[in-house]
Amino acid sequence: MNSSKFYAFVLNPWVVIISLGAGVAFGMLAPALATTLGFVGDIYVDLLKMITLPFMVSAVIFSLQRLFRDGGTASLLGRVALVFLAFSAFVAIAGAATLLILRPGENLPSTTMQTFGQIVGGDLSASDTAMNLRGVDEVKKTASFADLLVSLVPANIFSALANGDTLKTLVFALLFGLAVGHVPTRISDGLTQALETVYHACQTLMRWLSFPLPVVLFCMSAAQLGKTGIEPLRAMGAFVVAFLVVSVLLLVVAAVIIWKRSNGTLGQTLNALRGPFALALATRSSATCMPIMIESLVTRLGFARSRVELLVPLTVSLLRIGPVVYYVCATLFIAQIYGRSLSPVEIGIVLTSSVLAGFASAGMTGLVTVSLIGMTCTYLGLPFEAAFILFLAVDPVCDMLRTLVLVIGNTAAVAVVCPRPLKI
Q1: Which residues does UniProt assign to the signal peptide (predicted)?
Q2: Which range has the worst mean pLDDT, 31-45, 249-263, 408-422?
Q3: Which of 111, 125, 363, 413 stands 20 to 30 A from 79 (CA)?
């Protein structure tokens, strides 16, 4: 089997699903042994993160430079802003509609409430515990808009690179790329060639790292299940199912958008999305999926490279539709658990605060991403701190869905912003 066929094999969705299923089975049968396999996933994700920032910086600066030379910067940025607003509003409304229709947090069995109580350290079915949960929660101070703006500016770009701060690095790359675009060609040609070399080297490394993907998926899923067990998944099953429903809906919509924008067939579109789909499941990191997103849009679907290389890092860092829909669903689920009926105005507050929390989640993963649910709950006075451990217990599953929605959804956003390619 040559490298191209093997590359297609490891990214096949059935291979991904079988690897995950085998890992889950192993984690249930031998949890102690499965936990020891966690280091494989840690090493793999660190290797991917090693590539992400140099790839993003080189792609953004190089693309902005070419964009200024080709013209059309103002119209492109206006279209980007419109797409960002439309996509954010759509996913937030879709998440709210799904939770309000399915209502996974209402009429839960007493056994499920007892499991919740064991996880948070009390019995949620008892009135004194409910009062205690409401009484001891402290309302945390939320960041102001000014604090958010200050946090975007990298005082030291080398420190931002060393800390893996994606958002600050993106701001630097955008500003530097805008400046390079105004430098005469005879001076900037050397930098252009260097950046292009870095860009293609990172793409090559990413392709090499895709080969052990089935083994990595097996080890990561086995280690996670061996660590947490199956009980948290059962207790939060209703929420996970609801979030799965809205995620599948958004993935289908995104795939249709890409199909219609690409001028190709549905089969060609789905084949092009296999790589981003598999890598998003494996790494649960949208930033590490950027090279393969670019490869899919440019090489397989025919979109303009100069636009795609700029828009993919921009959307991954700023258009956080995966976290947005997650925050909407989680906030409404908490409200339903505590029997809080929300008015249309309060639902509007949930949608708006979730979009802001999604933007604030740029560069964050895992526990920190989950903790931002508290930002949306604060506006409604909901006791999130007690429920935090519930969401943390099932976050490995939800994180996969968040990343999938973000990666495939942002691929659709880039397809909307870019001009239609020729027939493929």
Answers
A1: none
A2: 31-45
A3: 363
What letter represents residue 394's amino acid?
Answer: V
Question: What range defines the domain where residue 16 resides?
Answer: 3-417
For 2, phi then psi, to 5°, come to -75, 175
Structural domain total, the chain = 1
pLDDT tens for 259-277 read 999 988 999 999 999 989 9
- The residue written with tokens 């092009």 in the block is 272
Task: Give per-residue pLDDT as tens, 8-17.
Answer: 788 776 787 7
How would you classify residue 121: left for phi > 0, otherwise alpha for psi between -120 and 50, otherwise beta?
Answer: left
60 has pLDDT over 80: no
Quick check: is 154 in a domain? yes
Total Cβ atoms within 10 A of residue 80: 20
More confident residue, 132 or 103: 103
Any domain includes 110: yes
Q: Among all chains, which residue has been given the structure tokens 């409401």?
A: 134
**How much of the chain is helix, strand and coil, in % rounded to 5?**
80, 0, 20
Exposed/middle/buried for 123, CB within 10 Å: 0-12, 13-18, 19+?
A: middle
- CA 173 to chain centroid, in Å, comes to 21
CATH label of the domain that carries residue 221: 1.10.3860.10
Domain membership flag for residue 296 = yes
